[in-house]
Write a structure and sequence with these properties.
The chain is of the alpha/beta class. The chain is built from 10 helices and 13 strands. It has a 9-stranded mixed beta sheet, sandwiched between helices. β12 and β13 form a beta hairpin. α8 packs antiparallel against α9.
Length: 320
């Protein structure tokens, strides 16, 4: 039995390491991809996870498979293709560690995922099915993703969703909004940024924007990440905001995914339906998620930056 199965992109983040000479930047290879990052965080905390996705039959793709195996993420759902290369993302960091991306994905192997690649037995054995919007950018992965998440819903699984907006990967923003909203139709738990909330709803106000999602999609639990400011949440008419932890960030890549892994970990530990979560439960869930996300920012990369339980507890104890 898997605690969480995720479907989506698995890629290489090429992160600035140093400058070998004036005007020359050295990049280091870091494994990434939002759904895989979430699984890595959960696995590091002791949960059992499985990944569904596709990489290129190239050096990067085989490296990524080995990373998943070394991280104890089940690779039963991972497949290879020679029709496209493994997706690359060049990470650009500013003086505060905040990142932006340049993608080499036209097409990327992750977009080649087909319905034939989906092992339905994996879904049947999982508690939570997790996916993100980047697998909705291109066919055949978009149709494959929506049919798989629909199957997970039919099987009674809790569905978590990350409407991860990377504008450069979409044909246009109109198409992005349409497809991201398709994903919202299936989600029980949604994690998004302030910018993504405003993009989807047209509302910058957190209370109004999240209420619109509940009214339109019956989303049970919504988390809006606020960077260094922490997190806002909505569960029905219950809302709240919790500050993040003070750390010295060097790379914010994967911070939101780390937060989401912490949230899903604590939710699983509660072992109760979303409807039964009370305000104390929500406080525990978000504080724990904030701690995981904060630690991720203190290291470069994503998958390899996820903290263990001892590190999370230490940060929480030190800042109580």
């Amino acid at each position: 039995m898997y605690d969480v199965t995720a479907l989506g992109e698995l890629l290489i983040d090429l992160t600035p390491y140093n400058s070998s000479q004036p005007g020359k930047v050295v990049f280091e290879r870091n494994p990434g991809g939002a759904p895989a990052n979430v699984l890595a965080g959960l696995t590091k905390l002791g949960k059992k996870t499985c990944f569904i996705g596709k990489v290129g039959d190239d050096q990067f793709g085989h490296y990524l498979k080995q990373v998943l195996l070394d991280t104890n993420i089940c690779c039963e759902g991972l497949s290879f293709t020679r029709k496209a290369n493994t997706t690359l993302a060049f990470v650009h960091l500013d003086e505060y560690g905040d990142r932006s991306f340049s993608f080499y994905r036209n097409p990327g192997a992750d977009t080649k995922l087909t319905e034939d690649d989906i092992n339905e037995n994996i879904l049947a054995q999982t508690k939570i099915f997790h996916f993100g919007s980047l697998s909705l950018t291109n066919e055949p992965a978009a149709t494959t993703t929506l049919k798989t998440v629909q199957l997970a819903k039919e099987q009674g699984k809790v569905v978590s969703y990350d409407p991860n907006l990377r504008a450069l990967l979409w044909e246009n923003l109109e198409h992005a909004k349409k497809m991201i909203k398709e994903g919202l139709k299936y989600a029980n738990i949604v994690k998004l940024s302030e910018e993504e909330l405003e993009f989807i709803t047209g509302k910058a106000d957190l209370e109004k924007g999240t209420r619109q999602l509940v009214e339109q999609y019956n989303t049970e639990l919504i988390f809006v990440t606020l960077g260094a400011e922490g997190c806002f949440y909505r569960k029905g008419e219950n809302i709240g905001k919790f500050k993040s932890f003070k750390v010295n960030p060097v790379d914010t890549t994967g911070a939101g995914d780390g937060f989401f892994s912490g949230v899903l970990y604590k939710y699983l530990e509660k072992n109760k339906p979303i409807a039964d979560l009370n305000s104390d439960d929500m406080q525990e869930i978000i504080i724990f998620g904030n701690a995981v996300g904060a630690i991720v920012t203190t290291r470069k990369g994503a998958i390899l930056s996820m903290p263990c339980m001892e590190e999370v507890k230490k940060l929480m104890d030190n800042q109580n």
